[in-house]
Amino acid sequence: MTPVDVVIVGLGAMGSAALCALARRGVGAVGIEQFSPAHAFGSSHGRTRVIRLGYFEHPSYVPLARAAYPAWRELERLTGERLLTVTGIVEMGRPDSRLVAGTLRAARQHALPHEVLDAHEVMSRFPAFRLPEDFIGVFQPDGGFVAAEAAILTQLRLAGEAGAEIRTGERVVAIEPRADHVLVVTANGVIRAAQVIVSAGSWLSTLLPVPARLTVTRQALAWFEPREPTRFDPARFPVFMLQDDTGIYYGFPPDERGALKFAKHHHEREAIDPLVPAREFDAADEAILRNALGRYLPAAAGPLVEATTCRYTMTPDEDFIIDRLPDWPQVIVASPCSGHGFKFSAVIGEILADLATKGETPHDISRFAFNRFA
Ligand SMILES: Cc1cc2nc3c(=O)[nH]c(=O)nc-3n(C[C@H](O)[C@H](O)[C@H](O)COP(=O)(O)OP(=O)(O)OC[C@H]3O[C@@H](n4cnc5c(N)ncnc54)[C@H](O)[C@@H]3O)c2cc1C
């Protein structure tokens, strides 16, 4: 058995970024993925992911979001791929909604560029929206989206070019920590590694006894052909999020097919078994989305073009886990999901590489430690 420096279990958003960062640092790394990368069974498919600076979830994410932008641009520079598109983002709702109040709090605390617009100003600047009088919008020019599958495939390509070994269609069946190394058992054999990064997404708790209660939930997303395409001119239709009494919705400008992606954050919060594929997108999912489209974006509510389901892996406090296992420090757990991790993945790859090579990172990841669950 030839020992390797680091094995990465799971090559979704986080694992592909970690493998890329490690390989570029010259570390002997092996990445193992049970399916074909950029597949549609986990948390990282669906073409696009929102990126934004003013972070409604908590202002402490802003430095990480700031670091993500140059990390995506560096990957673009190295590969010539277009991964990050800045469109601006408008976040709408009542002034006291978590989305609007949280975004403003983060934007003000970190002196981020932003504008506050009343409902009429939002509708005159972005004429596709229909808002109630008591809604406002916070516009941030830096918002946009990351190309999801392209980000994974690009990082794996770079990782391979830098010497990483990439094994696909191979499932890890056990991770067995030993005193000073780890055995990674797959259907094809056993790998002895100095360290393991477990970035298995929604499958994490099926592989490791993590000291946190994780819930995997089914999400739904859909693409609609706008009924009035002229209202969706890119200059007048940015990435958006909107909160009302039923939840938070989000969407993207029409893609190259002219299809507008629209979804509800957390959708129905339906817990699922990570080992069982989620139910396919159905009429009830479509009704939830059409109801909101009809209220706030009627010009978008044309025929359904595409739809799929996806998974969130939720921690109890909806913050990420990026930490070593308390009893097995040679096992690094990377579970940055809770429905909002993708935008950070390029920089989280660097953080995971820092932890594996130096034992520490200059980024503040104290919010993501296991000890908060103690
Ligand atoms: C619908 C939806 C919308 C979202 N929107 C946003 C957004 O707008 N902005 C944002 O920042 N984030 C968003 N997120 C969250 C973001 O996409 C996730 O945080 C991120 O994709 C998680 O990546 P991951 O690498 O942890 O998981 P995954 O990408 O699921 O990767 C885990 C990988 O591990 C592999 N694996 C698991 N077990 C094994 C095993 N035993 N052996 C080998 N391989 C294994 C899996 O096959 C999978 O490829 C969204 C998520 C969803 C589902």
Shape type: globular
- What proportion of the residues form beta strands (DSSP E)? 25-35%
Query: Helicity level, as a percent range?
Result: 25-40%
Number of E-type strands: 20
Task: State the end-to-end CA separation.
Answer: 37 Å
**Number of DSSP helices?**
8
Commentary on this structure:
With 374 residues, the protein is an alpha+beta fold. It has 2 domains: 4-45 and 149-211 and 317-373, FAD/NAD(P)-binding domain, CATH 3.50.50; 89-141 and 215-314, D-Amino Acid Oxidase, Chain A, domain 2 (2-Layer Sandwich), CATH 3.30.9. The chain has helices at residues 13-24, 62-79, 98-109, 119-125, 148-161, 204-207, 283-296, 345-358; strands at 4-9, 29-33, 48-51, 84-86, 89-93, 115-118, 136-140, 144-147, 165-168, 172-177, 182-186, 189-198, 215-224, 239-244, 247-251, 260-265, 270-271, 304-314, 321-324, 331-335. The strands form 3 sheets. Strands 5, 6, 7, 13, 14, 15, 16, 17 and 18 form a 9-stranded mixed β-sheet that branches. Strands 1, 2, 9, 10, 11, 12, 19 and 20 form an 8-stranded mixed β-sheet that branches. Strands 3-8-4 form a 3-stranded antiparallel β-sheet. Strand 15 and strand 16 form a beta hairpin. Helix 1 packs parallel to helix 5 (148-161). The longest helix has 18 residues, at 62-79. The two termini are 37 Å apart. The model has no long low-confidence stretch (mean pLDDT 97). Flavin-adenine dinucleotide binds at residues 9-15, 32-35, 42-44, 46, 49-50, 171-172, 199-203, 207, 219, 221, 263, 310-312, 336-337, 339-343. Flavin-adenine dinucleotide (FAD) binds at residues 9-15, 32-35, 42-44, 46, 49-50, 171-172, 199-203, 207, 219, 221, 263, 310-312, 336-337, 339-343.
